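Protocol step 4 of 6: record predicted structures for both targets in the notebook before any analysis. Target 1:
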Amino acid sequence: SEMCIRDRYMGSKIKIIKFFVMDLTFFAINDGYVEAIIRGLRAGFLTPDVYEALKGTNSLQDFKTVLEDTDYGPYLGSEIQNVSISVLRSRLKRKLADEFSYIQGQCVEPLATFLRLMQSQYMIDNIVNIIEGVKNRVDFDYLISQADPLGVFPELKAIKSVDPENYSELYSTVLIDTPVGPYFMKFLENVMEALNENISINEIQALFRDIQPEFIRTSLKKMWLEDFYEFCQQMNPITKEFMEDILKFEADCKTIQVIYNSIGNKELSSAANRSSKRKQLCPSLGYLYPDVDKDIANVTTIEGLRDAVRHIQQYREMLRDCLLYTSDAADDLLCVDLGGRRIIKKKKQQL
């Protein structure tokens, strides 16, 4: 009986060893290489010494010279004659976009979809900015040069050949096969559902011409946030926990921005449309949702907005010290860019 027990024990031990050997054979088989790349890229982060050197510069040329000795060097070559903030920002973002693109080319699911969703918000911004620029007769090559490198995709240049006011043609010929295509299709469907059945083709075209690009941006980003949040519910617990916090904060900032921008807008702040119209633009997630959703949807003043978010300390302090502002023409010295949101600093007595 002792031999049987010993044989059984040895057999079980061999099985366990085989299991671990097989497990190690396939360990990180999907994401191991990508993880190694990211660890390597992390070594290129600016060090505290570099930041101290940047703080001591007196001109943009000196700023550029310091960065040339870092991993940003290849993107800040000598061909840059007139150094400006916009050029520096574009070159530094180009480095990030190239690294992001390389990582995308090495990953498999579900990481591939995760990265695509990360990139979609920048695609939306580029599309809307170009549509708005074309409408205002801005040079198309200039618009492309100002596009965010993280949101550049091959079909972007095809917008030039499409009437920017014909959104159905824009979708069917340019955006249909892009990552943001489904959001754009859903946006068009929502607009059409709200129309009267007896409306004429000319009236439909006129309606689309009157749609503000910023309304499109807000609608598409609402869909994107909800889609990204739903996708993260299927991720591993650690990713899910961190991404839920990030996306909820992003959704809350978008909601606050929508409410703030709608104050004083007759269509969005009227008693009849206040709740329904705003809900169409505010994401259905976040720390404000659903408990504060009803209160914030009926806000008509800045004071009411502050009062609606008073239960969340972070938002209460943010609205106490600043105002949200959406114009890119704002003075960079008076504002902070918080994840694409322009935060304009104000004196407390002005608030």
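Target 2:
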Amino acid sequence: MKHPGYKTVPENDKKVNKKKVMEAFKLAEKIKSVLRERFTKEEAIKQESQRKEQEEINKRLQIQLQIEEDKKRIESENRKAEDERKKLEEEEKLRKLKEEQERLIAGGGVGVAAAGTAVGPAAGIAAGIGSVNSISDSISEVTPSPGPSLDIGQTGIDQISNHLGPPPAYSHVTPPESHIIPPGGTSGQYLPGATKVLPPVIPNRDLKPVNTGSEIPSVDRSNKPSVDHFTSTGIESTNKFGLKDVIVSTDLVEKFILLAAKNTRANTETCAILAGKLSKNQFTITHLIVPKQTGTPDSCSTTNEEEVFDYQDNHDLITLGWIHTHPSQTAFMSSVDLHTHCSYQLMMPEAIAIVCAPKFDETGIFGLLPGYGLNFIANCKQSGFHPHPKDPPIYDECSHVKLISGIKVTVADMRS
């Protein structure tokens, strides 16, 4: 359908308009081609960034799994060593008990009645009851009396006789009446032919040396060294989670925002590693390490991480967290940020995440809440951007961070 006034338009004007329309179509196709190429490249960069990010997450999870496996292996080895130690202790106790029993037998502490009845301590040893201490006490405090019947057989009697040697000639011995106990009789009576049992000679316990306490060394427990771990859960602390304090310089964020300004203007995220030292039971961030990286408006991935590892190793630095910008958003922890920070906090409970939002002039210092928050993210299997529940909260501002001025912060920018 043509415009009603189309026929009234001069032919030259029609040709000019038609030519302009065709040029516009050609330009539109050219723009479409350029946009298609641009969007294809951007999508490829985004997918590559997501792939590297996932690889990094998988690498960190693998490291954590290896740590857990090593921990379980060490615990298993410790349990085996403890079981072996207990076994050796039991064997040593049995060996000592057996030696004590043999010593008592060799010293005349066993009497055998004519009718095969064990007397006094012999009954306890033969039946396998009581300890050596109770046997010694019973010998020293109780007059020997007939014990329970024990059928050890002729072989057992012969073995005991051979061990003790020939019995003494009791017919030529006149023991004191207090030591004569005839079968079925009372103390003080003597019947010819009855077995006479003399108790073993027990040393006087008054001769045992008395421990005056001078041999016990005195220990001054005030000299005991204080705890000096990297991880400090459980020690006395000013925060409710029992973590060491992390000291952050007041100008650290300003320095980072300045070196990230170019990327911020290009709506690209920038990230860096926070590293430092442990001194006087607290961590201090002394170095800001900016690795080689690629970024998008809502993500940032590091490359050549071995340079960071070498730098930290050469300067004896501890990884205490990370810092990154949100060039067009507020200061909060996205789902990707939470998963990234989880690896830091699993290896160092005090690790922090600083988020800078220059556009809104906001800065937040965050950490996963120990317990629920850390466990929830560690067990979350989703990747990329995805929702997390907000009640109860998963992360919060760190209570163990102290901002102090005058602390020197070294910037190591590896991007150039």
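Step 5 preliminary note on target 2. The two ends are 63 Å apart (CA to CA). The longest strand covers residues 271-279.
Proceed to step 6 after PI sign-off.
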